[in-house]
């Protein structure tokens, strides 16, 4: 076996196995996930209906006319990132994804730091989504069926179902996500079609909103948290590489399909919502009392009440699907870190019948439960506090990892491009680094607009990201000093294929 520290020869098509999982732990299901399944995992994690009906009104309230173009630019930037990311995926297959990429492209200490940030980020996002699921279920079921149950009861029911699906074979999760995804995309297309057929609302179709100058407007920082956050989860194509069929082809293909589809779909749908109220008036509506319901209201006006009611129901399944996707991704990070010995090795335990990371699933479920219980204990608003605050930290953490991963691509291919064109492994990653760096700056600068909180709260939400990264770096350096042989194997675990 060849260590990944010694790159494969130019033009090599497959990752070279390095070491298998620790003995007695089994392995994840091999060859179970095809390109379509990967796309479902990624797009379901993005939760299109939750993004448009739940997040777009907030984004419009902050970014105004800049919002549709903000989603489109975010998609273009992440396509640049995906170019190098997918090139590296041919040589690095690890359920820890960013951890392994950054470790092999920049250095093991940075990789371990990124792993700890990933665990923080994915857990924060899942906790927020679980609270969001409870909120949408409480309000949606009450609105459509007249049955009321408190949000946290719905969240706990969702957590049990998500934990069970996380334990069962991964192919079942893919089927659940696929059904939820198709339904939520269809209802959004119905809304878009209704607005478009009507001529675009009171001002007609306003194409001037795609003028880049709007990105200089105040409030775009908070808007970009929601815009970039709308794509969070496309890393799942790499997370599931160990379980994918023909990952050398399926991972890049699924990544491009997912990011390309989301970029166009989001920009068009947000543009339609903006047009529905008039581009000059939409921001005021979004900031007003009826702002949170502006997408449902538009559906009722341009399509019919049945569309609004359907959205109220499908946003519940959308939030559930997104929570499930992040739960599965976070559990695989726990699994990868346990396998590497960077967290308790029990986390790498595989249920041999289901071929799922059973202990990691239980640990992930326990953390999500704690998030719900804390929200209940402090009587926090499940949407405005738990959903928004945890996602703000989680998404910023993912953006930081994406920036490091783009740098890692440049470092990994610095001496040998392995037959890839310079635009894919040099130019595109540089564009991604510059773009992500600028967006991170804008996000931090406009963090208060997203959280509606003061400096102390915002600092408490941002500071854990660099702190956790530094802790990971210290852990790696400690292993290097005390166990150099073990240190040399970090980030190199790659499941051997027949």
TrEMBL record:
<dbReference type="InterPro" id="IPR004841">
    <property type="entry name" value="AA-permease/SLC12A_dom"/>
</dbReference>
<feature type="transmembrane region" description="Helical">
    <location>
        <begin position="69"/>
        <end position="92"/>
    </location>
</feature>
<feature type="transmembrane region" description="Helical">
    <location>
        <begin position="175"/>
        <end position="197"/>
    </location>
</feature>
<feature type="transmembrane region" description="Helical">
    <location>
        <begin position="384"/>
        <end position="410"/>
    </location>
</feature>
<keyword id="KW-0472">Membrane</keyword>
<feature type="transmembrane region" description="Helical">
    <location>
        <begin position="422"/>
        <end position="441"/>
    </location>
</feature>
<feature type="compositionally biased region" description="Pro residues">
    <location>
        <begin position="1"/>
        <end position="11"/>
    </location>
</feature>
<dbReference type="InterPro" id="IPR050367">
    <property type="entry name" value="APC_superfamily"/>
</dbReference>
<feature type="transmembrane region" description="Helical">
    <location>
        <begin position="313"/>
        <end position="335"/>
    </location>
</feature>
<feature type="domain" description="Amino acid permease/ SLC12A">
    <location>
        <begin position="39"/>
        <end position="484"/>
    </location>
</feature>
<keyword id="KW-1133">Transmembrane helix</keyword>
<feature type="transmembrane region" description="Helical">
    <location>
        <begin position="461"/>
        <end position="479"/>
    </location>
</feature>
<feature type="transmembrane region" description="Helical">
    <location>
        <begin position="38"/>
        <end position="63"/>
    </location>
</feature>
<feature type="transmembrane region" description="Helical">
    <location>
        <begin position="253"/>
        <end position="274"/>
    </location>
</feature>
<feature type="transmembrane region" description="Helical">
    <location>
        <begin position="149"/>
        <end position="168"/>
    </location>
</feature>
<feature type="region of interest" description="Disordered">
    <location>
        <begin position="1"/>
        <end position="27"/>
    </location>
</feature>
<keyword id="KW-0812">Transmembrane</keyword>
<feature type="transmembrane region" description="Helical">
    <location>
        <begin position="220"/>
        <end position="241"/>
    </location>
</feature>
<dbReference type="Pfam" id="PF00324">
    <property type="entry name" value="AA_permease"/>
</dbReference>
<feature type="transmembrane region" description="Helical">
    <location>
        <begin position="356"/>
        <end position="378"/>
    </location>
</feature>
<feature type="transmembrane region" description="Helical">
    <location>
        <begin position="113"/>
        <end position="137"/>
    </location>
</feature>
<protein>
    <submittedName>
        <fullName>APC family permease</fullName>
    </submittedName>
</protein>
């Amino acid at each position: 076996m060849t260590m990944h520290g010694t790159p494969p020869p130019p033009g090599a098509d497959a990752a070279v196995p390095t070491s298998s999982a620790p003995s007695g732990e089994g392995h994840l299901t091999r060859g179970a996930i095809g390109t379509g399944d990967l796309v479902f995992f990624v797009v379901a994690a993005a939760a299109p209906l939750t993004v448009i009906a739940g997040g777009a009104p907030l984004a419009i309230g902050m970014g105004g006319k800049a919002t549709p173009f903000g989603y489109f630019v975010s998609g273009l930037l992440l396509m640049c990132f995906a170019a190098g990311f997918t090139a590296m995926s041919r040589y690095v297959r690890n359920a820890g994804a960013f951890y392994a990429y950054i470790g092999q492209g920049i250095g093991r200490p940075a990789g371990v730091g990124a792993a700890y940030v990933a665990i923080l980020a994915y857990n924060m996002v899942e906790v927020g989504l679980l609270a969001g699921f409870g909120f949408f279920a409480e309000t949606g079921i009450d609105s459509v069926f007249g049955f009321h149950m408190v949000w946290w009861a719905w969240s706990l029911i969702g957590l049990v179902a998500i934990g069970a699906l996380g334990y069962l074979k991964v192919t079942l999760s893919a089927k659940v996500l696929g059904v939820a995804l198709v339904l939520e995309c269809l209802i959004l297309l119905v809304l878009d079609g209704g607005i478009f057929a009507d001529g675009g609302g009171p001002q007609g179709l306003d194409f001037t909103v795609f003028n880049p100058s709007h990105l200089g407007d105040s409030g775009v920082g908070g808007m970009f948290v929601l815009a970039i956050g709308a794509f969070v989860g496309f890393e799942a194509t790499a997370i599931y590489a160990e379980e994918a069929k023909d990952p050398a082809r399926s991972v890049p293909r699924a990544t491009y399909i997912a990011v390309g589809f989301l970029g166009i779909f989001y920009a068009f749908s947000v543009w339609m919502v903006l047009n529905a109220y008039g581009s000059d008036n939409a921001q005021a509506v979004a900031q007003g009392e009826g702002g949170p319901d502006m997408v449902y209201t538009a559906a009722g006006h341009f399509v019919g009440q049945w569309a609004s009611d359907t959205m109220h129901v499908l946003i519940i399944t959308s939030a559930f699907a997104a929570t499930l996707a992040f739960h599965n991704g976070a559990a695989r990070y726990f699994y990868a870190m346990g396998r590497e010995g960077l967290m308790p090795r029990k986390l790498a335990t595989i249920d041999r019948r289901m071929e799922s990371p059973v202990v990691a699933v239980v640990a992930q479920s326990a953390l999500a439960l704690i998030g719900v219980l804390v929200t209940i204990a402090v009587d926090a608003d499940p949407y405005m506090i738990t959903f928004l605050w945890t996602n703000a930290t989680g998404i910023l953490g993912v953006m930081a990892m994406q920036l490091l991963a783009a740098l890692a691509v440049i470092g990994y291919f610095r001496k040998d491009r392995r037959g890839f064109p310079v635009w894919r492994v040099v130019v595109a990653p540089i564009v991604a680094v510059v773009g992500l760096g600028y967006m991170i700056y804008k996000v931090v600068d406009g963090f208060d607009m997203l959280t509606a909180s003061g400096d102390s709260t915002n600092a408490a939400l941002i500071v854990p990201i660099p702190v956790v990264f530094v802790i990971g770096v210290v852990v790696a350096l400690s292993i290097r000093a005390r166990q150099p042989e073990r240190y040399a194997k970090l980030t190199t675990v790659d499941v051997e294929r027949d």
